[in-house]
């Protein structure tokens, strides 16, 4: 759960998730929405993958990134259970 919160704590990573919510994208497509280096973008994608928020799939010479929707369902359920215990 710590990796999840670390991944969500950064504004640029949240923006990547918003972009991927709309459609699956390659790193080149994602990069057009940022003014950061390729190395920084790769680092953000690595953290998101480590938190299991995104998945990647090779398509020829490109890698396509998409949201890992099953993890989002798991996160929502955990958060709901945390708030339910607080009542």
Q: Can you offer a commentary on this structure?
A:
This protein is α+β, with helices and mostly antiparallel strands and 87 residues long. It is globular and about 45 Å long. The protein has a three-stranded antiparallel β-sheet. Helix 1 (2-8) runs antiparallel to helix 4. A hairpin with a 2-residue loop joins strand 2 (54-59) and strand 3 (62-67). It has helices at 2-8, 11-22, 27-31, 38-50, 69-85; strands at residues 25-26, 54-59, 62-67. It is 62% helix and 16% strand. The protein contains five helices and three strands; from the N terminus they run H-H-E-H-H-E-E-H. It has one domain (2-85): Orthogonal Bundle (Arc Repressor Mutant, subunit A), CATH 1.10.10.
Total beta strands: 3
CATH architecture: Orthogonal Bundle
The order of strands across the largest sheet is 1-3-2
| CATH C-level | Mainly Alpha
Q: Please state the overall shape, judged from the principal axes of the Cα atoms.
A: globular
Please, what is the average pLDDT? 91
Low-confidence stretches: none
Instruction: Look at the structure and name the CATH superfamily.
Output: Winged helix-like DNA-binding domain superfamily/Winged helix DNA-binding domain
From N to C, what is the helix and strand string? HHEHHEEH
In oligomeric terms, what are we looking at? single chain
Structural class: alpha+beta
Q: In this structure, how is the largest beta sheet organized?
A: 3 strands, antiparallel
Helix content: 55-70%
CATH topology: Arc Repressor Mutant, subunit A
> Roughly how many Å apart are the termini?
22 Å
Radius of gyration: 14 Å
Percent of residues in β-strands: 15-25%
């Amino acid at each position: 759960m710590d990796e999840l919160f670390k991944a969500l704590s950064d504004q640029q990573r949240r923006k990547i998730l918003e972009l991927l919510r709309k459609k699956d994208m390659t790193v080149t497509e994602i990069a057009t929405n940022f003014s950061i280096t390729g190395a920084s973008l790769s680092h953000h994608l690595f953290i998101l993958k480590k938190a299991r928020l995104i998945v990647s799939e090779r398509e020829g010479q490109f890698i396509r990134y998409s949201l890992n929707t099953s993890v989002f369902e798991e996160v929502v359920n955990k958060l709901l259970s945390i708030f339910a215990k607080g009542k």
